[in-house]
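User: Can you fold this complex?
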Amino acid sequence: GQQVMQIPQYQHVQEGEDFTTYCNSSTTLSNIQWYKQRPGGHPVFLIQLVKSGEVKKQKRLTFQFGEAKKNSSLHITATQTTDVGTYFCAYSGAGSYQLTFGKGTKLSVIP
Amino acid sequence: KAGVTQTPRYLIKTRGQQVTLSCSPISGHRSVSWYQQTPGQGLQFLFEYFSETQRNKGNFPGRFSGRQFSNSRSEMNVSTLELGDSALYLCASRIRPSGQGSNSPLHFGNGTRLTVT
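Assistant: Here's the predicted assembly.
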């Protein structure tokens, strides 16, 4: 079956440092989505990547989809305390629209 | 536009009881998915309904069931509750499962926190 690992599980950074979370799959993904869940909140959709090698930016956030569509990353430049939360990738396999979530990366930002 | 509404927000039940959770999707959204969130297992997919039909089902026992009504509102039911069913149950809606070759994004409700004692 499809195996997608999201790493790291936890990340503590000093405010102003950069942060990156990765989702790595053993098989090709149709597309990948990223969500953010603030403490006590619910997941909120950030972005979807569909094309091989795709790169999208949202202010300080940069999302990448690998050339082989087997991995993806979310990079935050100069973290702020408002970036605190858990970041999830969500993916579906070929021919399926069921969205499966990675285990998430919990980001803590030390002011 | 109103968001996804889940009721109740909190529930406390005893082992062996059953429970029904409700979800009202965003207006115009015809797909509703349910997820179970626990600290140890993360977000686990339960099932997705579209146009009153179950389209996908996760790896949960038959004690977990759901349905969708003609107005797209959905309910999920858990029978014979176990301690391990304690979790945050999240409902998410989207216009439809797919859109122009890609997945439609999910819009989540605030969840129902179920505690089984």
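The mean pLDDT of chain B is 94. Chain B has no helices and 13 strands.
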